[in-house]
Amino acid sequence: MLQVKGLAKTFGPGAPLLDGVDLDVAPGEWVAVVGESGSGKSTLLNVIAGLDRPDRGAVLLDGKPLDFADDDSLALWHRHNVGFVFQAFHLLPYLSVAENVALPLALLGTGRAERAARAEVLLASVGLAGFDARRPGTLSGGEMQRAAIARALAHSPRLLLADEPTGNLDAVNAAAVLDCLRDAVQRAGAAAVMVTHSPVAAARAGRVLRLSGGKLAP
To answer: Most CB contacts within 10 A, which of 5, 26, 53, 153?
Structure first.
């Protein structure tokens, strides 16, 4: 489903962060990318998501390449195809939990009733049934991250990306979030890539790759 071919990216002088990265991810597969701080893990995710441009190389979803030269096309592609889970949750405090979950659908013009129904189903799927009207500030860290996973899946993306999704959580909440992420990937049949510095988190994925010297290797 996801193909990354020969990605290269350099910031300023020095060695490139990405130097010919290749990656294939099948539908329903969850791949973890590990590496030292500053090795380029987040940069790799941002390029795959269409949030940053590579110096060279290609990203293809279902065989179709991203058009990195067209800002409007790239933004629409990201909005329709990518779900992103961040370390810092990024839930909007002035919206209810359900409104946060439904935000990707609102951006796509989905009607209010359909958004509410979808959010209710997704919250139940991540163990947050009945949390619809609550505000993010009333949730624990683990609950906020599960709500963020539900939000990432709201628009049924083909590609699910997670950047250090357990970095702000204790061991118990981290394990629950990883279980939730695994189940979500399997249900959605998405291609999933998680970057993490945690070997415990990485071990929960179906495949682990290391980014070092600008390249990916088992």
So the answer is: 153
